[in-house]
Amino acid sequence: QRCCICRLWGASVSCRGRRCPRVFHFPCGSERGCVSQFFGEFKSFCWKHRPVQCVRAVQQDQTLCLICQEAVAGQPCYDTLVCPACASAWFHRRCIQGQALRSARHHFRCPLCQDVATFQEEMFRLGIKIPDR
């Protein structure tokens, strides 16, 4: 099939959004903001149907990423994630993904409140890959 992003043949990842016809290459989707869930049915979603965070979090002035200490967006979005347990820990997607890959499932937790279960469940849902080891 043809990739809806780069228009080249060989796309194999389909959006699981209701009646969405988009098919893309995994790398193209990652660059465009598509989300692939690395658990259960391994669903993938295009940029229009990807899961979003429903966390009510309010920033105090300019909030920084807890990992890289650089500014994050003013509200949760694709590139800015918030811990669902404490709503005080803000991260860049690329920073929390790096931490997940280094920590693996046994040690991956919110760097601020140390929550494991709620935090991992939300990060999985938002497409953060957390390896078993």
Automatic annotation (TrEMBL):
Record-linked Pfam families: zf-HC5HC2H (PF13771)
Domain RING-type, chain residue ranges per copy: 65-114
Keywords (A to Z) from UniProt: Metal-binding, Zinc, Zinc-finger
Record-level GO cellular component terms: nucleus
Signal sequence, start to end: none
SUPFAM superfamilies reported in the protein's UniProt record: FYVE/PHD zinc finger
Protein name as annotated: G2/M phase-specific E3 ubiquitin-protein ligase
The organism of origin for this protein: Eudyptula minor
Gene name as annotated: G2E3_2
